[in-house]
Amino acid sequence: MAEEMNIQSAFQSVMAANQDIPPKQKQVLAASLALFAQQGFANTTTKQIAARAGVAEGTVYRRYKTKDELLAAILAPFMTEVFPRLIKEFAQDVVSQPYMTRHEMIESIVVDRMAFIQKNGAILRILIREISVRKDLRSQFVSHAAPLLQDNLFPVLDRLKARGELVDWPDSRIAQFMIGTMLTELFRRLLLSEDDAAAVSVIIEFLEKGLAPTTK
Amino acid sequence: MAEEMNIQSAFQSVMAANQDIPPKQKQVLAASLALFAQQGFANTTTKQIAARAGVAEGTVYRRYKTKDELLAAILAPFMTEVFPRLIKEFAQDVVSQPYMTRHEMIESIVVDRMAFIQKNGAILRILIREISVRKDLRSQFVSHAAPLLQDNLFPVLDRLKARGELVDWPDSRIAQFMIGTMLTELFRRLLLSEDDAAAVSVIIEFLEKGLAPTTK
Amino acid sequence: MAEEMNIQSAFQSVMAANQDIPPKQKQVLAASLALFAQQGFANTTTKQIAARAGVAEGTVYRRYKTKDELLAAILAPFMTEVFPRLIKEFAQDVVSQPYMTRHEMIESIVVDRMAFIQKNGAILRILIREISVRKDLRSQFVSHAAPLLQDNLFPVLDRLKARGELVDWPDSRIAQFMIGTMLTELFRRLLLSEDDAAAVSVIIEFLEKGLAPTTK
Amino acid sequence: MAEEMNIQSAFQSVMAANQDIPPKQKQVLAASLALFAQQGFANTTTKQIAARAGVAEGTVYRRYKTKDELLAAILAPFMTEVFPRLIKEFAQDVVSQPYMTRHEMIESIVVDRMAFIQKNGAILRILIREISVRKDLRSQFVSHAAPLLQDNLFPVLDRLKARGELVDWPDSRIAQFMIGTMLTELFRRLLLSEDDAAAVSVIIEFLEKGLAPTTK
DNA sequence: AATGAATGAGATTTCATTCAT
DNA sequence: GATGAATGAAATCTCATTCAT
């Protein structure tokens, strides 16, 4: 699937969004990303970041004037570029196939999105944790994501519902189950630290059945 | 349902597990719980806890000698008592009804567990967040939860599988989808800050269909 | 003169304005005052303050959350209490003697104000230096001092002018010369580090002659 | 008055004393001067200087190896050249007119010196502030200025005193009042940010009367 | 038991200065 | 010469923890 090629890892995207950055600054960004994901933002010191990046502590502050800006530099391009692109790419794929079945749609979503999640697990972890802790980030995220879903995912769902391919629940609920189920894989891997290649196909089957229309 | 009555809110459980505590210490515990859930453990200062509890900062330390002990005092009883009881109660219910259908089992699980999640969302949030950041807590949790599920949930799943009531996936995967789906509700509510009374029945239907055996 | 007794040293006033302060906090305030006066605010580190006060560095921040607040704690009571009281006390003295001569007025002003300047040289040095460097402090000072002079000093000057006891210059100019001349003594002492007991009488004579009406 | 033409602005003098300086270094010097005067030396960063000068931060250090040298480059020529020349020029004027009256002398001093103060207010502000904070600068200034006044101003004062044109106070006191009164104008302008063309003549009259011999 | 001032280790941040390009 | 990224020492500030009252 050509689309898959388009999905860049969020880390690369963060870097792309921070073009023309001197190499040491990239190291700082990479170190921050790794440490924030591993230990959490609040538990990571700039000293650790500097050590991991192999730079002096002052260097951490050269481009990003506060630790919070460092977090923003990681999350912002993700929310404003990577995430939107991800959703729009999906929409394009789907719109070009008006007579998609539920299976085709879910497979189309899950395969690419799971690849994305696996590549960008680190940033997603940071995002999820910080969203649950910072009100400002939460509303920023909601105001970014809501219209994206509204405009790109929901019309597709509605069309499928109209054709009797999808259960008749509110779109937000269907999205909750789709996204949530994919994210459980992130959590599973955290706990079991094991990789399961079969995960994708199982998730597809689970969603496909779970979201089938109610048969009375 | 009688069982529901048995499910105490985690906070009450925490308090129960900390019996004979002077009132000020209870206030400290309650304040910590609220603040940890809202802002995260690392972002909460003992000063904030003291203020919220209406006590002096020194008082925070009378019973719990470190901030970490405070976290432990909240999470430990939850993991060692509340959580096990929750699962065992479920097992007892189910074991007494050998010919349960998938629907009955899932309903039996979800109704009570969702009530539990809704009551104890605060502690769960703390637990999930801290588990993702502390390796020790993670292995502690895994070594607690794994046998519990192994001993209580998995036999039930196996029996249902044997009777063709349940899809033939590894138990851990089925548990992942059941627990994960229920937890998505926590996250949904965090983002949308809206309560949906219909959530439970939708989740039941979603799981029931999603976990049905593959029909070929 | 009874009034002289009323003039408290600004340091005592700063302390008075910071009543019920634990002794260590007073030491912090006193150390800050001394060091700011000696080395300037920007050249004084909180480490120096802590060392001079004989406390830990954290103690410096217990009551005053920033170094700037420490400066404010010293200057604010001076501007809002000591300085106004100083001017009002003068006004009361003078108002009770409607037929004062220029000599009497100037003597009445200079004697007490010079005592004040000598006692509070340290704070005045800080105030003058910081005023010349911070725009906010400057306008704060102007908006405090201007009405005070307007209401208390200028009417007295006008009355003397009307009686031909005082040169017919704008009040602000007369104030400039009176205050300025007194302050030159501060600067002289800084440079020569010598005390001249005769200063007061010389200043009185200089002002008395300098501010006499123009004889044509 | 021809002399007035001779008085160059201190900035020009500073520049003159730093002849053969590449243009970028001049910009650095000018930026430093402006910023030190506005914000104080300690509150000005080399980054600000570089930005204001329109050069890179490294360039600030090409000629002046430390920030202190930058201050020295501004103040030194002022103290060693501008200031001495100012006083000597005055002396030459006066010596050539042995029968000067007090009015003539004061006018001769004040007119030119006030022009000087107005032109060089920025440097004077820096000088005064730093003198009050640095002991080395203070003694340097005293050892420079004292003999200059001793040799050039004091003989003139003595001659006038001998002729009964001037009050019989110590020369240092008379100098204090003359210089101090002129400097009050600097401070007045800082506070009121208004220019008063009449200032010079009022100051002359004030000094002339204030320094008149005591009449008994 | 409770208080809250004090502590000091350590975190964040600043900035004069250096140095490779 | 000029640049600006990098440095690291030192400054400001935070906060879990202790302790005298």
TrEMBL record, chains A, B, C, D:
<keyword id="KW-0238">DNA-binding</keyword>
<feature type="DNA-binding region" description="H-T-H motif">
    <location>
        <begin position="45"/>
        <end position="64"/>
    </location>
</feature>
<dbReference type="Pfam" id="PF00440">
    <property type="entry name" value="TetR_N"/>
</dbReference>
<dbReference type="InterPro" id="IPR050109">
    <property type="entry name" value="HTH-type_TetR-like_transc_reg"/>
</dbReference>
<protein>
    <submittedName>
        <fullName>TetR/AcrR family transcriptional regulator</fullName>
    </submittedName>
</protein>
<feature type="domain" description="HTH tetR-type">
    <location>
        <begin position="22"/>
        <end position="82"/>
    </location>
</feature>
<dbReference type="InterPro" id="IPR036271">
    <property type="entry name" value="Tet_transcr_reg_TetR-rel_C_sf"/>
</dbReference>
<dbReference type="InterPro" id="IPR001647">
    <property type="entry name" value="HTH_TetR"/>
</dbReference>
<dbReference type="InterPro" id="IPR009057">
    <property type="entry name" value="Homeodomain-like_sf"/>
</dbReference>
